[in-house]
Amino acid sequence: xIRTKLPKVGTTIFTVMSQxxxxxxxxxxxxxxxxxxxxxxxxxxxxxxxxxxxxxxAPMTGxxxxxQAIAExxxxxxxxxxxxxxxxxxxxxxxxxxxxxxxxxxxxxxxxIVLDPAYDSYEPAIELAGAVAVHVPLDPxxxxxxxQRVREATTPRTRLLIVNSPHNPSGAMFTADDMQAIADIVxxxxxxxxxxxxxxxxxxxxxxxxxxLRYPALRERAFVVSSFGKTYxxxxxxxGYCIAxxxxxxxxxxxxxxxxxxxxxxxxxxxxxxxxxxxxxxxxLGAFYQAKRDxxxxxxxxxxxxxxxxxGGYFQLxxxxxxxxxxxxxFCRWLTTDKGVAAIPLSPFYARPPQGxxxxxxxxxxNPATLDAAIARLRTL
Length: 381
What we know:
Radius of gyration: 20 Å
CATH architecture of the largest domain: 3-Layer(aba) Sandwich
Number of strands: 13
CATH topology of the largest domain: Aspartate Aminotransferase, domain 2
Number of helices: 15
Oligomer: single chain
Distance between the termini: 45 Å
């Protein structure tokens, strides 16, 4: 009998629902991946990089051209110029970067504060470090944080606070006041910050993404993680990066080099070219997805599902109380098997789900035909 190191972990809900969708021929609005094309310039740049022979190991920290392009983009967007040599590390997706950051600073017996609902990779990484995840709930209606509760959750054993904006699964976003509250907590307690910002460019209605990189007091003690897959519609390429001050980056790289060492070399060259030659892609990404958000919400208004506000990201939460009294896991399974639309329940994102919550997550990063097919089925509810 194997004594598992992760007794609470089974197959991720995203895999479960995608398999169920495939088995039942359901429209998959569950797992968060686009079903439209990668930008042609990026595909061409990838092919050119492979033809040019960039098919062997990349430097451990990432190719210099990409790290420089990331630093330039960061300065352009957030007004902060990280040192590409000592503060920027390219990773095999954001998930690897999150894992590395946690293991870089968190030791056995320490505590990490996470805000529920939270992305499901955080807690397993914390547990593998021998630490304890301390769950602080967001407001169940608005998904706004209660920073006083976060303060009360900190102890002498607290090492790290993990935040995520735009938020998965809700799409909620931090304000400048939230960032000041985080800065105050970090200053008062001396803890570190891990800021998961993979949806940084998918923000709506003229709002500004409040990156930790905008705030000197935060970026001095923060790992800031981003994802090329989310920004460029290529989640299968698994490329991301982490920006952190030199001392934190040094510890981050110790974990990175013995985790994956380096990542997909041709794609690094392709992204370096894309960032340099087509910055309008990430600059216009919010408008691109806002049109999808608005069209999908209008379609949902013709169903019995009630869409919640979506300030950022590419997920739409829906309240299904008018349709069913089932708990969210049972509802999403029924929706997939009986109605042919796959969704993600919110309960797996919680340590203790709110009693009576009737919400499901739908992904609108899809072609119009995919969303039309889903809506046609949802109108039968």
